Automatic annotation (TrEMBL), chains A, B:
<dbReference type="InterPro" id="IPR003607">
    <property type="entry name" value="HD/PDEase_dom"/>
</dbReference>
<feature type="modified residue" description="4-aspartylphosphate">
    <location>
        <position position="78"/>
    </location>
</feature>
<dbReference type="InterPro" id="IPR021800">
    <property type="entry name" value="DUF3369"/>
</dbReference>
<dbReference type="InterPro" id="IPR037522">
    <property type="entry name" value="HD_GYP_dom"/>
</dbReference>
<dbReference type="Pfam" id="PF11849">
    <property type="entry name" value="DUF3369"/>
</dbReference>
<dbReference type="InterPro" id="IPR011006">
    <property type="entry name" value="CheY-like_superfamily"/>
</dbReference>
<dbReference type="InterPro" id="IPR052020">
    <property type="entry name" value="Cyclic_di-GMP/3'3'-cGAMP_PDE"/>
</dbReference>
<keyword id="KW-0597">Phosphoprotein</keyword>
<dbReference type="Pfam" id="PF13487">
    <property type="entry name" value="HD_5"/>
</dbReference>
<feature type="domain" description="HD-GYP">
    <location>
        <begin position="303"/>
        <end position="500"/>
    </location>
</feature>
<feature type="domain" description="Response regulatory">
    <location>
        <begin position="23"/>
        <end position="147"/>
    </location>
</feature>
<protein>
    <submittedName>
        <fullName>DUF3369 domain-containing protein</fullName>
    </submittedName>
</protein>
<dbReference type="InterPro" id="IPR001789">
    <property type="entry name" value="Sig_transdc_resp-reg_receiver"/>
</dbReference>
Amino acid sequence: MDDDILIIDDDEQVHDSAIQSWKVLIVDDESEVHRITKVTLSQFRFDGKSITFLHAYSASEARDILKQETDIALVLLDVVMETDDAGLQVVRYIREQLGNQSVRIVLRTGQPGQAPEDDVVESYDINDYKDKTELTSQKLRTLIRASLRSYRDICSLQRNKRGLEKVIQASKGIFEKTALDTFVEGALEQLTALLELEDTTIYNIKHAYELKNTELEMLHSTASDKTETDDLQQHPILQLAIKDKTNIYQESEVVIYCKNPRHNLIFHIEGTQQLSEVDTHLLNLFTENIVVALENIRLNEVIEDNQKEIMYRLGEVVESRSKESGSHVKRVANYTALLARLNGMDNEQVETLKQASPLHDIGKVGIPDAVLNKPAKLDAGEWTIMQTHAKLGYDMLYDSDIPLLQTGAAIAMYHHEKWDGTGYPNGLRGEDIPIEGRLTALADVFDALGSRRCYKEPWGIDSIMELINSESGKHFDPKLVQILNENLDLFLEIKQKYVD
Amino acid sequence: MDDDILIIDDDEQVHDSAIQSWKVLIVDDESEVHRITKVTLSQFRFDGKSITFLHAYSASEARDILKQETDIALVLLDVVMETDDAGLQVVRYIREQLGNQSVRIVLRTGQPGQAPEDDVVESYDINDYKDKTELTSQKLRTLIRASLRSYRDICSLQRNKRGLEKVIQASKGIFEKTALDTFVEGALEQLTALLELEDTTIYNIKHAYELKNTELEMLHSTASDKTETDDLQQHPILQLAIKDKTNIYQESEVVIYCKNPRHNLIFHIEGTQQLSEVDTHLLNLFTENIVVALENIRLNEVIEDNQKEIMYRLGEVVESRSKESGSHVKRVANYTALLARLNGMDNEQVETLKQASPLHDIGKVGIPDAVLNKPAKLDAGEWTIMQTHAKLGYDMLYDSDIPLLQTGAAIAMYHHEKWDGTGYPNGLRGEDIPIEGRLTALADVFDALGSRRCYKEPWGIDSIMELINSESGKHFDPKLVQILNENLDLFLEIKQKYVD
C-alpha cells in the first residue's frame, strides 16, 4: 500500500473544490464577540479558501445549526450562556448525540472560575481552551489556522476510510457475480459509487466495452444519447488506455482497463470534477479486485463451455451409431432453447434444456444395429424394440443428482409422447406431458424432416411447416406450433448456422 | 458501515495496551526548559497513561531521535537553536522527509521576532505556536492534553485505514483461490495478518475445521502439539460458535464461522491480547468476504462434480453396449489416477487423466454389435474391425479445444499400444507411447482381468499379478508395473470401493 497518498500539502488542497470555504460556527451570547471575531478574520484564508461564519447566540441555537450543517470545521464556543455550563452541554451534544468526531471545538470563556480549566479539558472532548482575554487577533489567527489544518487532515483520513470501506463493499458486490453481463453492470455501478464519495461529484456518463480484436463493443451504457455513445468510442482517452493497457485518470475522466486471456474490458466514466489522489488510489485498489473477479468469471466460463461441449459430444457419439449428422444435436438443442425462451421460460431453465437436449436419443445406444440402421420400414417387432429407447435413455440418467442429467432423463423419456395421447412410452396427453418432452418433440421432428436420413431425403420448409401445422394439437403442443410459425425466421437462422 | 466503531471514549482506550505511555519529545537548547516541562507534567496522565519524555538539545539530535522513534505523540519544539530557523527545519524534516503526519508539533519560541507567527503557522505544518512566556503550567497541561487527544484520534483513524487496506488485500488473496484446501490455508493466513495490526499482538495458534454432521474435522493447523489440537476441538468457544452459527470474539480468542449449503467452516485463532472494537469490525467485514469466496468455491465444486459425473455417464453409456458393468469406468479412472499420482504427475494432470479416462473405449460405439458382443473368439476380419475402435475414439474427440477431451482422444488412441511395439493401432514402442496410453493400458487390463466378461470369469488377484508381472516390459511400462506391485493395497482399496 502506498502511504504517500495521505501526504497532503497545502497546494494540492487548492484543487479540492469539494470544500468551497471553511465553515466556522461562533457560539456566544455577546454579539460583540461575533462582530470582533468576524472583523479580525475577514481577510483570513487557509488553503486558498476563506471562512464562512455561522452564528449562534445560545446553546440551543448552536444545537440546531450543528444538526443541520454537518460540515462545520470549527466551533468557537462560549461556556456560560443560558446556564453556567451551556457550552459544555453543547460539547457533549456534538460528540455523543451527533457522533461528530471531526469538528474542532475550542472553548472561549470569559469566566474561567466557572469552569476550572483542567477539569474541563480532561472531561470534555475539546481541542483547545482559551480565556477570552488571551485571544489577541494574532492568537486567534494561529488558533484558526491550526484548527482548520487539523480538521482538514481528519476529514482526509475519514474520507480515505470511507473510500476503503466502499472498496470492500464494491469488491464484495462484484465477487458475488458469476456471469459476465451482471458483473459488468455491477462493476460499473460500484465504480461510480466509489467515485461519488463527495456528494458534489456526479459521474453520469458511464460505458463498459469489450475490446474484440481492435473493435470496441459496447457491453453496457447509461448514456441516453446513442449518437454521443458512438462518438465516444473514438475518444482519445480510450485509445490511450488500449495502447498502454492501463488505467487512465485524466481531469474528470476515468478509464479502467482489465484484461485476461479471454476478456478485454474497458470501463469509461466521465464526471464533473477532477479526481483526487485518494480517488485514484482507491480506483487502483478496486481495479485489482476487478481483475481477480474477471479471472474467476473466465474460469467459470471455461468450465461451462467444457460442460456444453462434453454434452454435445455425448449426444453426437450416440447419434453417430444411427449415422445421423453431427450437427443434428446442435440444431435440436438450439431449436429447443429458442422454443423454451419464446415460451417464457427463464434463462436458467433455457440453458439447462439446451445443454440437456443432446441426450434425447441416448437410449438408442441400447438398440441393436439391425433395428437402428435398417434402411427400410421397421416391422411391428422391430418397432417395439425401437420404442424402448425412450425408457432406456431415462434409465441411464434418472438416478443422477445433477439437474442437468435429470432434465436429460425427462427429455429422453417424453420426447416421443404426442399431444393427443397416441405417443410412447406412456401415452400421456396434453399438458400431462412434461414441457421438456413437448419442446424436444417439436424441435426433433422439425429438424428430422429437414435432414437427410437413411430412409428419406430432406424436405423443403413449406412441406415441413405444412406437416407440423397439420399435427398441431395431434402430435404437437399447439401453443409451441404457434410460436414456431410466428418466429420461423429465427429457427431458419439456426438451421443455416448449423448446416451439415 | 457502522461508523460507531470510530467513537472512542477515554474509558475504552484504557484497555489499549498497545501504547504503554505517551512519548513527548522536548527539543530545546536550554536544559532548564527540559527540566521545567518535565516537573510540570510529572503527575500528568491522559487516558490512564503517563508521559515518557525524550530529550533533544539541538535540531540534529531531534532528527536522530525522530528517525528512531516512530511513535512519538508530540514534539515541543524550540525554533532558534544551531541556526535561527533550526526548529523550522525540523518541522520540514518530520513532515516531508519522514512522511510523519501523525505526530503533533508545537513550536515554543523565546524570540518571536525571529519567526513572525503568521508566516510560520501558514508555511509550516505545525499544530500550535506558543511564546515561551505564555506557557504557564496550566496552559502547558491544556496544550498537552489537547495534543495527545488529537494524536490519539489520528492514530485511531490511521490504524483503521491500515486495517481496511489489509481487509482489501486479504480479500483479494482469498478470492484468488478456487480450491477449498488452498482457500482454507489462505483465509487462515489472512485472518492472522488482519489480527496482527499491532506489532505487539501475536496470534500463534490457528486451526481451521470443517463441521461434518456434528464432528469437527481439522482442515489445517499451525499448532505444533497434536495433543493440544485434539483437546481444542472440545473447546467451549467452538461449541458456542457452532450452536449460534456466528462469529465469536472472546478475550484474545476469535472463532470465525462461515456456512453455505456444502461447507461449514470454522476458523479458530488464539492470540495474546484482547481484541479491540476496530478488530472485530474488520473481522466482520472480512468474514462477509470469506462467505462470498466460499460460495464461489462451492459453485465451482458443483460444476466440477457435474463435469465428472457427465464424463462417467458418457463412458458408461458406451460401455453399456458391450454389457460391461457400470463400475468398470469408475475403477479404471481411479486406477489410472492413482498410477499417475504415484508416477509423480501433478494434481492437475492427475485430475484431467481421471476425468478423461472414461472415454478410453468411446470408439466402441462405432463397432457393430456382431463384433462387439460376440460370445466367442473373434476371427481375423472381426479382430481388424474391433481394433478400429482406438482410432474411431480418437477421431470423435481430437478436434476439441478442451484439454480434457484432447486427453480423452490420446487415451482412446494409445491405450492398446504395447511397450514392446506389438500393440495397435500404430505399433509404438516404449516411451514413444504417450503416458496417457501406458497408464490406461495397465489400469484397463488390471480391471478387465478381475471382472466378469461375456467370454470369461473374473480372475483372482494372484493370477492377475502373475500375468501383469510376466507382461512387464512386454505389454506394460515396467516402471508402472513396479508402482502397481509396490502399492497393490491402494489399488485393491479402489477395487473394493467400486465393486460391481
